[in-house]
Specification:
Layout: H1 3-18, E1 25-30, E2 46-47, E3 59-61, E4 67-70, E5 79-87, E6 94-99, E7 108-112, E8 115-119, E9 122-127, E10 134-140, E11 146-150, E12 153-158, E13 170-173, E14 188-197, H2 202-209, H3 224-249
Antiparallel strand pairs: 1-14, 2-4, 3-14, 4-13, 5-10, 5-14, 6-7, 6-13, 7-8, 8-9, 10-11, 11-12
Length: 250
């Protein structure tokens, strides 16, 4: 193996180890495996009454028993989030998925019946069903455009034309606002929640929907897997050189 070939293989392996390159950087990852902490040491989620023990590896919530994250966005103007969840019931017209204003207004991300809606501006076309996981991704770019995805498919992109598109830094999941009497919520379960600095592309969202990794913080080759790979590669390179010398000497 030549040095050039080895370095190419090492670079490719390092890329796979650290995740797909993206303009969006993963800053908070809540796996919900028995606790509400962030894998990267950021602020923890706060439970509003649900359970981490009913279903291993998930957070189960009743009506208005969601999760809250305070100061989770580095920049409230440019960000992305995604999560995997399911509803036990889709009764009622609206089910609030994410509230961005500390439960003070009706604006926010919903399922309107069974389709993704950013109220009051746009509604998608992909339907979800009860007791079946769906993935949701939401992005906001520098122009203020909000883009919403269900199961990797773009549902809408809303230009920054209304006050509803301006958000705060308290995110509340699966709990309705008090301005409508908290009537627009249903029980369900969430597998994970992730927050990103920057904007996920449509390609990124498709990768995430298939269980891939996007925007994970870069990991140096000193990580155990990377170090083992590098050591093995150097060993192979040295052995190849030694064998060629022995062959020539013979």
């Amino acid at each position: 193996m030549t040095i050039a070939k080895f370095m190419t293989a090492a670079v490719l392996a390092a890329s796979m180890w650290s995740g797909t390159a993206s303009a969006a950087v993963l800053i908070h990852h809540y796996e919900l495996n028995g606790d509400l902490t962030d894998v990267y040491g950021g602020p923890s989620l706060v439970s509003l009454g649900g359970s981490l023990t009913s279903t291993p590896g998930r957070y189960d919530f009743g009506v208005n028993q969601g999760l809250r994250l305070t100061s989770g966005l580095n920049d409230i103007g440019i960000w992305s989030l995604d999560f995997k969840a399911s509803y036990a019931s889709l009764s009622g017209t609206w089910k609030k998925l994410v509230d961005f204003r500390n439960l003070t207004t009706d604006d926010g991300l919903y399922f309107a019946n069974d389709k993704l809606q950013f109220y009051p501006d746009a509604t998608g076309t992909t339907a979800v069903t009860t007791n079946t996981d769906y993935t949701i991704a939401l992005t906001r770019d520098g122009s203020g455009t909000l883009s919403g995805y269900v199961n990797g498919l773009l549902q809408w992109a809303i230009a920054n034309e209304s006050e509803s598109n301006v958000i705060g830094n308290v995110l509340t999941f699966f709990t309705d606002d008090v301005s409508t009497g908290q009537r627009e919520a249903q029980p369900g379960s969430v597998d994970f929640i992730r927050i990103y600095d920057g904007v996920l592309t449509a390609g990124d969202v498709a990768i995430l929907d298939q269980g891939g990794t996007v925007g994970a913080p870069a990991t140096s080759v000193s990580e155990p897997g990377g170090l083992a790979l590098l050591s093995a590669g150097l060993f192979a390179l040295g052995w190849g050189g030694r064998k060629r010398k022995n062959d020539q000497a013979a």
